[in-house]
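I'd like us to work through together how a protein chain folds, taking it slowly. We need material for that, and I hope you will provide a protein of your own picking. Go ahead whenever you are ready, and we will take it from there:
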Amino acid sequence: MNLHVMIRTLLALTLLVIVTSDRSAIAQEEKDKEQAAAEAREKATAQLKANLEKMSDNVFLRERTLDNGNKIFQLIWEMDGETSKITFELRELGHFRGELIYGILAYSLVSGVEEGSLPPAVIKAVATKNERTGLGYFSMPEKFDTVFINMTAPSDTLTPSQLWMICAYMHQNRMGFKKEIESLLNASGQ
């Protein structure tokens, strides 16, 4: 074997080793990122659960695990003789100073119909009602058969008293809009 062939073979083997080590380093980096994200989600979930539990002795809190492994918290809120079920779910917001930051999405069902869609008057009310809510916003899925009240906030800075205020505002807005929707449904004959 001549020297030229040996040098090319040695260079090819060196390149193969470099490419292989780069791939394993990239794979390890991805594993580390996934592990850090799982730890950040676990920490945010524990913090949200602790704050919801400290919020009040008069609320019922239920924890559920979704099919994707994420946890949600359903809280039964009672005020002025009315009850609302408010769901809290963590959502990834992005990174800040290298750490993964989560926010909460809180939502509750306002009204809905079993078949068809809600009448145009309700759809219009949903579109214009958001200007008058103190906290949160109303939304509908594409089928226009359900109305939700939603609220988002960063989860890392929320205290139990802030969560209490969020629930109170959401409940108040939900109940007020529910009565308005019932009136619109009665006027439209549904």
User: Anything to note?
Assistant: The beta strands are 60-65, 71-79, 82-96, 99-112, 137-139, 146-154. The longest helix spans residues 3-55. The first strand starts at residue 60 and ends at 65.
